[in-house]
Amino acid sequence: MTHRQFEGWNSYGRRLAAATKAGNRDWVRLPYCRGVMLAEGGKLFFTGKACKRGHLSPRNEHGDCTQCHLMRLAERRDAV
Ligand SMILES: [Zn+2]
Fold this sequence. Notes:
Bound molecules: zinc ion
Number of strands: 0
Distance between the termini: 41 Å
Low-confidence stretches: none
Radius of gyration: 14 Å
Number of domains: 1
């Protein structure tokens, strides 16, 4: 894994608390913003902030919440 500049304890602590609340502490190891994710060549990042629907989950390269993304896919599948 590439060595990333530390985001700072405030940011890390907030993300760790959010990941713990969401039940997946591994998410704290994801990049904290899209720029870092792109620099590392990853596909997901985790801000620790809830999306507009209140999901605490990682975001993809478009900045979309992955849970909302899955919901949209399911809606599309049901609509067919
Ligand atoms: Zn969402």
